[in-house]
Amino acid sequence: MTENITAQDVPIADTNRRLSVIVFSLFFSWLLAFPFEGRILYALADYYNSPAHSFVFGTMTAHFAGLFVCGFFVRNMRAAKRLILFSIACCVAASVVFFRPPSFLWTAALLLSAFLAGCCVAAWGFYFKGCAPKDGRIKTIADGLIFSNLLMILLNMAAIHISPRIGLGFSMLALTAAFLFALRLPKEEAPAAPPPSEQGEVISKAGPLAFLCLFIVVITINSGLMYQVQVPAFAHLERLTSWYWAAPYIAALFIMRSLPRKTNRAYILYVAIAMIGFSFIAFLLLGRSWADYLVVNTLMLGACGVYDLFWWSVLGEMLELDKNPAKIMGAGLSANVLGVLLGGLIGNAISGQSHNPTLLALGVVCVTLTLLPPLHTRLTTLLKNHVYLTAITEMPAKEQTRLICEFNIAEKLTKREGEIAALLIKGKTYRMIAGELHVSENTIKTHVKNIYSKAGVQSRTELMNLLLDIHIPFTESENP
Predict the structure, then answer these.
(1) Which of 146, 114, 141, 142 is nearest to 129 (CA)?
(2) Do 26 and 175 form a contact (C-beta atoms < 8 A)?
């Protein structure tokens, strides 16, 4: 009986996951192509000889507000679905205004649609959590970002090479399709498991989430600088930029999505930081030809793809730690918008000075390098199996045993404590360890407390992180 129910539930769950990706992709493509620094908005402004910059920062501020406040009034999937449908319908209606020449209605429509778009994306967090399995969220968000950017490219090309109004019309069709697919989204959440926690350990998401948001703000300042400094410098290459702009971003997402789980993605994050720095150095040293654009844009947007998938997927796993995923999504994505907004404001202020944007970007890269190790430490205390963070648990048993031997020497654990530490990093619970070693569960808790005390850690994941740090120099010393 149970097997039949499970077999029936699998296709339903997969259908819901696909529906959630389709709705996200269609809606997000409109968001990227139109109100969020979109090419359609710029093309319409140029068509009517109106400055687009007068709309952009107010629109992004409204989008930030929508992301931030959504979680305070949307508390369940039923309310999330109603808000998503209402927001999409309003965005379709607001888009109609842009078939007419600029007026105060443009500003009102942009502010309203940007605010509701923020609410809609944050509310989608309920479906990101409820329709995607925890171990499949990195692929779910990668699919959503890839498809939305592909659609955005098509919308951009229609607006630039055919007509801004044609591009606007196609974007409204994307919104309408998003509305129709959203009607089929489930209204009720599946029964949720309690937030994961270790026996005897208290896990708080507030500190790691706040640090992650700080990191997102800092890393995306460079995106804002790119919008205001790099993009305008290559505006004369419109035929190339209309389609290639997001191509490296999509390629990076696809590569990161397809990597084997055992791949150590932490090193790739450092490579991506270097790519951002080299992008601005290349922008300073090279010219403004199509070849120079390919170099600058490939480095910058490839790095953006790596980092966007990183923090989006971390947010995806953090959704398990709160009953209201809209709050988690809203916090992380509003940090992203804030970083872009700050970078845009700074870039707009110094865009006429050739060296300052590059020096500022390199400064941001240095700050990012400083923030990444403590961010990794804080996240590993919270998320045990995230592909960007997990390293020890993916090692063969012999490697894990070797780490424990090294750790025994370094920290002078007793033989019994070493055995327990080895079982801890293999994911065994206190009860399983007690059964395997034929002792009481209270005895195991006492030993674990001593292990944590000697290691200077407070949780199993901090212990894993410490063992990994010990392993790296040991390996280098063996292989000069």
Answers:
(1) 141
(2) yes
**Those residues with Cβ within 8 angstroms of residue 235's Cβ, 6 or more apart along the chain or in another chain:** 241
Q: Which helix (H) or strand (E) holds 136?
A: none
Tokens of 44: 């319409």
Six token digits for residue 249: 């971003």
Q: Is 76 helix (H, G, I), strand (E, B) or coil?
A: coil
- Report the chain (480 residues): mean pLDDT per 10 consecutive residues: 43 82 95 88 87 79 94 91 96 94 90 95 93 84 95 94 94 96 84 46 67 90 79 85 92 91 77 89 89 93 93 88 89 92 78 65 82 78 65 52 53 75 76 86 86 74 61 39
Q: Which domains does the chain have, with CATH numbers?
A: 7-186 (1.20.1250.20), 392-478 (3.40.50.2300)
Per-residue tokens: 406:
């090294």
Q: Yes or no: say if 73 and 153 are a contact pair by the CB < 8 Å rule.
A: no
**Cα(167)–Cα(170) distance, integer angstroms:** 5
Token pair in block for residue 210: 């706040």
